[in-house]
Design brief:
By secondary structure, the protein is an alpha/beta fold. It has a domain of 214 residues: Rossmann fold, CATH 3.40.50.1360. The protein has nine helices and 17 strands. Strands 6-5-7-10-16-17 form a six-stranded mixed sheet, with helices on both faces. Strands 12-13-11-14 form a four-stranded antiparallel sheet. A three-stranded antiparallel sheet has the order 8-9-15, with helices on one face. Helix 3 crosses helix 4 and helix 4 runs parallel beside helix 5.
Length: 324
């Protein structure tokens, strides 16, 4: 009991220090002159400020976000991104997700527009990064408040289970992603096979966006829910990660996994000071999984992928039983 109280006290103390750092930012506007890339650190993807790369084309300066994909392309992510944009039709309003796979989908969408295969397509970005990439690849964007409906939305995920429940927020954009995905008539999640899990939360924490002034009581409430919260720290700047909406992010681990994602999503969002959390339950209609079959890349629906895994498991069990 004493150790638990000490842990909460230490967590609250860290929260107070982080809160003071945020308050000292005052009216400083951030994010308007930086791009973003994702990076893995202690199991958590962090949004890391990166200088924009400037190149001169025809005596004009073109600004482009530096992304990890440009230097180390991932064939599985690229394949599923190409497959997904085939679902876009002329005149559609498209939700543009945030993250490595979603960034590739934005690029592939831009290629179709540039080739004249898609006309009158508009994008709604879920982050500053998504809007920068849309401009770079020639996808016109519109503000979320100026549309009544989104026809289709593309996004990635940090984890997805067999019931299409997700953990998102590695790029700290899950609040805007959830708004856009909820508005969309159809949300398509793009993942490679490494993101499919039997149970959420066993390896990836749940990101929670929190109002800066409420960070300390929110941390205590998350501990009371059985979580192990940690304020997400920024790289290349001192202090915590600040979202596009000006809030902080707390990554919460739940030892033993998440047995009831819907209940946990609701309970976290009921905590005063929480803006939104990274559990997405009952929102997604389609999950496309990119997987390797020998040397061939295969894009398969999540339900079929899970069914194939179960069949392979059953076959292995039968073979083992027959040989014993």
């Amino acid at each position: 009991m004493a150790s638990a109280l000490l842990e909460v006290s230490m967590t609250a103390s860290a929260a107070v220090r982080a809160n003071a750092q945020v308050q000292r930012l005052g009216d400083l506007r951030i994010g308007e002159q930086i791009g973003f890339r994702s990076m893995q650190m202690r199991g958590v993807k962090l949004a890391i400020p990166q200088p924009l790369r400037s190149t001169r084309v025809n005596n004009s300066v073109r600004i482009s976000a530096v992304t990890a994909e440009s230097s180390s392309p991932d064939s599985l992510k690229r394949a599923v991104a190409k497959k997904a944009v085939e679902l876009v039709k002329p005149g559609m309003i498209v939700g543009l997700g945030t993250g490595s796979t979603a960034s590739m989908a934005i690029e592939e969408l831009g290629k179709l527009i540039a080739a004249g295969k898609l006309k009158d397509v508009m994008g709604v970005g879920t982050s500053y990064q998504a809007r920068v990439l849309a401009r770079q690849f020639g996808v016109k964007t519109v503000d979320l408040n100026d549309v009544n409906v989104i026809d289709i939305a593309f996004d990635g995920a940090d984890e997805v289970d067999g019931q299409m429940n997700l953990i998102k927020g590695g790029g700290a954009a899950h609040t805007m992603e959830k708004v856009v995905n909820t508005m969309a008539k159809k949300t398509v999640i793009l993942v490679d096979q490494s993101k499919v899990v039997s149970e959420l939360g066993l390896t990836f924490p749940v990101p929670v966006e929190v109002l800066p002034f409420a960070i300390s009581p929110v941390l205590r409430s998350l501990v009371a829910l059985g979580g192990e919260p940690e304020i997400r720290s920024a790289l290349r700047k001192d202090g915590p990660v600040i979202t596009d909406l000006g809030n902080m992010v707390v990554d919460v681990r739940f030892p033993g996994g998440i047995k009831d994602p819907a209940d946990l999503e609701r309970r976290i969002n009921m905590i005063p000071g929480v803006v939104e959390n990274g559990l997405f339950v009952g929102i997604v209609e389609t999950v496309l999984v990119a997987t390797k079959d020998a040397e061939e890349t295969v894009i398969i629906d999540l339900a079929d992928y899970v069914k194939n895994l179960q069949q392979a498991k059953n076959d292995a069990a039968e073979e083992k039983a027959s040989s014993s």
